[in-house]
Amino acid sequence: MKAKYAAGSILKYGSLILGVIAAILPILVVFFASFKTGAEYTTTGPLTPPSDWTNFENFKRAFVEGNMLNGFKNTVIILLISIIGTTLIGSMVAFVLNRFKFRGSKLILGAFLLATLIPGVTTQVATFQIVNALGLFNTMWAAIILYLGTDIIAIYIFLQFMNSISVSLDESAMLDGASYFTIYTKIILPLLKPAIVTVIIVRGIFVYNDFYTPFLYMPKTELHVISTALFKFQGPYGSEWEVICAGIMLAIIPTFLAFISLQKHIYNGLTSGSVK
Amino acid sequence: MFSKLSYRTQRIIIIVSFLIVPLTLLATFSFLPVANMFWYSVTDWNGYSDKEFVGLENYITVFTDPEYFRVFGVSLYYFFATFVQMAIALYFATILSFRVRFKNFFKGVIFFPYLLNGVAIGFMFLFFFRPDGALDTVLQMIGLGDLAMHWLGNPDIINISLAGTSIWRYMGFNFIIFLGAISSISGEIYEAAEIDGANRWQQFRYIIMPSIRIIISLNLVLAISGALSAFEIPYIMTGGANGSATFVIQTVDTAFKYGKIGLASAMAVILLFIVIIVTVLQKRFFSEED
User: Fold this and answer.
1) What pLDDT, on a 0 to 100 scale, did the predictor assign at position A14?
2) Distance (Å, rounded) from C-alpha A145 to C-alpha A134?
3) Which of these, B167, B207, B212, lies nearest to B191 by C-alpha position?
4) Which residue in A has a C-alpha nearest to residue B25's C-alpha?
């Protein structure tokens, strides 16, 4: 029995360690290469650690020459505006649809739910013409408005959460003479906080990592975000893998820091945000 | 300022003002594109010309011209990869739902790749698969050096390499969903099973599997639309070269590289239909289960 238990343990931890190696190795070799000099990169193997851990030359080049600095700036702007917008739009729709029953309210809810069936990636052919006609092509607003206009998951998360906020709170506020607008801003919005955290996480991950939208709608160099700035490394640095690796690390570091500090929220956010 | 108005008036103002922007956005960016897409798909529009009605010609091209038809085959690689991905995810989720040392560390590391930027992952694996790169070096270290090959140069292997990258990227998501579902099973059930002498496999087979069956089938069905929509990894890594073009890459190229908006719309409509059929089937399947 004991031997069998030990064998089980070896299998269990062995497979876990294998999983960890598979997850970490591709990142680790990039991490190593990002500190190597050009000569060192060509003469050492990928699994050899760099000789000088303080060689930040590649990072400097990726950051400045590679336009990553500008990419971070644009990503942050788009991220902030679209997250604030998504929170407002999602909570407003959820408030109205959850608290008021009126003619057409079912229809509107149905329209939002129906839209979740449309995979965004398929409709770009036609969406492009609309964005172009609105004069938004090659402006930051193209990405922002598309993130706002197609984010139905946020509405869904808020709608589900609204069910748990008791109507009696609204009613007692109304006895005190509060307007509906006050009820929304002073009661509902603060109580939606856990749902807002979920929305920020789900949308934050999506927007930071999105490649398709900025690639298609904002090809201008000044408008590059992290994804598209990094994508541009392919041509000019084609043979300078140590610089590309530094660029990859720069794109990963913010994600890593966010994960370390928000771990629990991220797990919860994804589990609740995925129940479509 | 609103409080002087009657609740009836307030209600109307709130409903209209809170819904007008979201509904405008919904109509403009979700429904209008779909409607336009149907219209473009029966024309020969190239983005500038007059739209001339051509009937079902575009649809016939997609299904008969091997250049367009072929890409469905590429989807199969991603479809099978999803099964592998879910099997691995389920394995790790099960193991980590029992008592394990350093549980949070293992959980975090196995999940982390899912959070990463797609372009970063694409480049990371371009690097990983390079001749004499990390993968070849590791294979040599464990005595499998003969297996080293042009992972992205060989047309027979390229889709396996890319689908493998896709597994690396998305497995963590399935893993965390499965883990959440398994953790919600009450600990008492396991205790009772252990008292009855059930071993780990029996616990998995008769306690865990039945309670997450629905989540597994949901994910399997999603695998079909996921496989057809595969885009980022192959586009970033190869641009669709060497026989690695997926359906969405083909659509995007047809529209934006070759300017055949009509034909690309037909492809997008086909994909939309497949995805909707799959989703409806899955919804129906679910309501019967409950």
Assistant:
1) 94
2) 11
3) B207
4) A149
Q: Which residues contact A18 (CB under 8 A, 6 or more apart)?
A: none
CATH (one of 1.10.10.10, 1.10.3720.10, 3.40.50.11890, 3.30.470.20) for A67-273: 1.10.3720.10
- Average the pLDDT over A128-149 and give the result: 94
pLDDT at residue B125 in the model:
97
The domain B61-289 is placed in CATH, from the list 3.90.1150.10, 1.10.3720.10, 3.30.465.10, 3.30.565.10, at 1.10.3720.10
Say if residues A204 and A276 touch (Cβ distance below 8 Å): no
Q: Report pLDDT for B290.
A: 46
- Position B3 scores a pLDDT of 65
Q: Match 């500190």 to its residue by tokens.
A: A35
**Residue pLDDT, tens place only, B219-268:** 777 777 788 888 999 999 999 888 899 989 999 999 999 999 999 999 99
SS3 label, residue B43: strand
Distances (CA, A) of A180 to A86, A140, A163, B187, B243: 21, 34, 17, 45, 58
Q: Which of the residues A123, A129, A147, A148 would you substitute to probe the B interface, choosing the one with the greatest number of B C-beta atoms within 10 Å? A: A123
Q: A145 near B25, Cβ under 8 Å?
A: yes
Token output for A204: 């934050």
**What type of residue is A129?**
Q
Q: What type of residue sits at position B109?
A: V
CB B238 within 8 A of CB B157: no
Every domain range in chain A assigned CATH 1.10.3720.10: 67-273
Q: Which residue of A16, A87, A125 is the best one to mutate when testing the B interface, meaning the one whose CB has the most B CBs within 10 A?
A: A125
Chain B residues touching A252 at Cβ < 8 A:
116-117, 120
Beta bridge partners of B43: B53
Query: 32-91 in A: which are within 8 Å (CB) of B?
Result: 33, 45-47, 89
Average pLDDT for chain A: 90
The distance of A150 to chain B (nearest Cα, Å) reads: 7
- pLDDT tens figures, A67-99: 899 999 999 999 999 999 999 999 999 999 999
Mention every residue, 6+ apart, whose C-beta is less than 8 A from residue A257.
Answer: none
Mean pLDDT of A230-257: 90
User: Do residues A252 and A167 make contact, with C-beta atoms less than 8 angstroms apart?
Assistant: no
Q: Is A135 left (phi over 0), alpha (psi -120 to 50) or beta?
A: left
- The domain segmentation of chain B, as residue ranges, is 61-289
Instruction: Give the phi and the psi of residue A103 in degrees, each rounded to 5.
Output: -60, 125
Query: How open is the CA angle A47-A257-B110, to the nearest 5 degrees?
Result: 55
